[in-house]
Amino acid sequence: MVAITCRLSCSVRTKGQRLRAANPPDASAVATFQEFVTPNQDILAGFSSQGPTAVDLAVKPDVTSVGVNVLSSITCVGKPAGCPGDGSGWAFFSGTSMSTPHIAGSAAVLKNLHSSWTPAQIKSALVNRADLVIKDAITALHDVGPTAQGAGRRESLRSCSRDNMDGSRVGELRQSDHWASHVVDDHLVQPSATDETFTISTTKFTPSTFGNTVPLIYNAGTLSAGDDRITVPPSVTVPANGSTTLTVAVSSAHGDVVQGWVNLDGPGSNDLHFAYYATVGR
Fold first, then answer.
1. With CB atoms counted within 10 Å of each terminal CB, which end of the chain scores lower, N or C?
2. pTM for the whole thing?
3. Residue 266 vs residues 5, 85, 130, 145, 252: alpha-carbon distances, Å
4. Measuring CA to CA, which residue among 150, 183, 153 is closest to residue 278?
5. Planar angle of CA 109, 115, 117, nearest 5 degrees
6. Do the Cβ atoms of 40 and 69 come closer than 8 Å?
7. Cα dist. 242→128, 129, 162 in Å?
């Protein structure tokens, strides 16, 4: 986890008063960047909320971001012991209020690069290109499921990659709200001027306690290639400046929980994925 802050090396009030008194034609200030790095990277916080949603069993969270011990914009002035330094520094906070600004900042960068993109397209770029690297909160060794990390830890560089910047090779995946006969249709949008074909595969998530070392509540488990409970076509082609439908079918016993990720591998580095989660009912 990396948090960066910038502090002016001078007292703004004192120097500001002097500058106003001197009334110079221009002025400069020296900034010092401080970087705080922890070796505990990509570990899901034990307090992090998990899905699915209670009403429609939707996969939540959509995506994961940094949210533990983040150097915030809140000063330590008037704060109790525990704030860094002499009480005049900045406080570290944890929670959704810290991870949300990281996502919002990434969305703002994407919007700046692609001013015509809709909120759904920006969300898709962040979610579909996230990294499946999150580990469990107890041992930091095991993968966690889609209802704990969503599509993974957001990776802004991939979301803003060259494939996206020039308007090509951008796939938009939106899970439909509608399930019928154990089938769900996903909407794929291709805003570029060329057709694009994706090879489709699945990654299965199987929960495990790893010999009772990780309680089930932390949603740890193993990943494996392929899920025979999920049926997807071997490939799909999205037409230029158009869209198509990807049908995902679930075939499993009543009461089974089916979860993992559907992967779409396109030309070059244009690889996308989205999470799936289903409880098979009658």
1. C
2. 0.74
3. 38, 50, 16, 24, 29
4. 183
5. 95
6. no
7. 18, 20, 21
